[in-house]
Amino acid sequence: MNQNKALRWTLHYLPAIGLFAGFILLWQLAVSVFGIREYLLPGPYAVWQSMLSDEIPWLSHAWITGVEILGAFLLAGVAGVALGMAIAWSQGISRALTPFLVFVNTLPKVAIAPLFLMWLGYGILPNMLIGALIGFFPVVINTAVGLTQIDQDLVDLGRVFSAPKWKVFLKIRIPNAYPYILSALKVTATSAVVGAVVGEFVASQKGLGYVIITTQSSMNTPAAFAALVWISVLGLLLYGLVALLSRLLAPWAEEAPR
What we know:
The chain crosses the membrane at residues 12-36, 56-88, 100-122, 128-147, 177-203, 223-250. Belongs to the binding-protein-dependent transport system permease family. This protein has ten helices and no strands. The chain is an all-alpha fold and 258 residues long. Helix 3 packs antiparallel against helix 4 (91-106).
């Protein structure tokens, strides 16, 4: 039974595995056939060697960036859900908050990053806040939509049983919003990665973004690509955790292999 399940999962993800393998193969062929110099575009094998090299403390830098990404994701998720619930709870709050949130979301995050660093100094916290600022808006919108786009019969049923507004909100509206919130969190999982790395680009002495900046200045392109791969791995891990959470909280909204 377990073997059959493992086979189904393998077949389910086989297209993605094949796409990654094909991309790496074409990448290596392009570098080899056209003789592209390593400082311009290193081959996959050179990048792999750099990832395993002791020249750069990869685990230390990956840990710093991972903490920043996770912190940004949690901040964006908590703030986004709370604001989305406030918007759905009251039309007055919605009219007050929505224009302000749209204004904040349209601000150029790269321009805000130096201000955060000036106010808060160097460290993990400014990069977390930048990542959270980039990723919170989809959570706000999806949470509000999920709480309001609901079958009116369910709301009427709660009223028939004289359920107070807060109980209808807790027992009916919030479960209905699970797929919307979890879908937004998947987007935020990738946005948090971008935000954390942007913060490291602006000013940082640790982290994978810092590695990219320093290795580019020394023309160590394989190491820069290796840092990009590590960043992608962290993003994939966080996305996978959110996908797993989606299967646990809202399995009806997930398409799992059967």
